[in-house]
């Protein structure tokens, strides 16, 4: 095994650069893990926000359609009532059959 103290300065510089670069990459990877998690969470939040905008737009369109149909219903109801028609009460449901004793 070679003696580290007797290595030439060129070899010491090369080994120092290799170990220093490796150590720097390990520390960089360790520090960037939380950033990667934050980026993932941020992208999920942005996707949910865009989905929420689409759902709100669809809800607004559905509410608009609901109001149009409600207005049509009341216009037709007013027209029917103005012509003198009376609405019939629904007939009572027939009584349920009684169970037969065994």
Describe this structure in words.
It is a single chain. The mean pLDDT is 83. It is built from 1 helix and no strands. The chain is an all-alpha fold. Helix content is 73%, strand content 0%. The radius of gyration is 40 Å and the shape is rod-shaped. The protein has one domain.
Summarize it.
The protein is an all-alpha fold and 102 residues long. The protein has one domain. It has one helix and no strands.
Class by SSE composition:
mainly alpha
Quick check: average pLDDT? 83
From the N-terminal CA to the C-terminal CA, the straight-line distance is 103 Å
Form type: rod-shaped
Portion in strands: under 5%
Main sheet properties: none
Work out the radius of gyration. Answer: 40 Å
User: Can you count the beta strands?
Assistant: 0
Summarize this structure as a short list of keywords or feature phrases:
0% strand, 73% helix, single chain, 102 residues
List the helices and strands and how they pair.
Layout lengths: L8 H74 L20
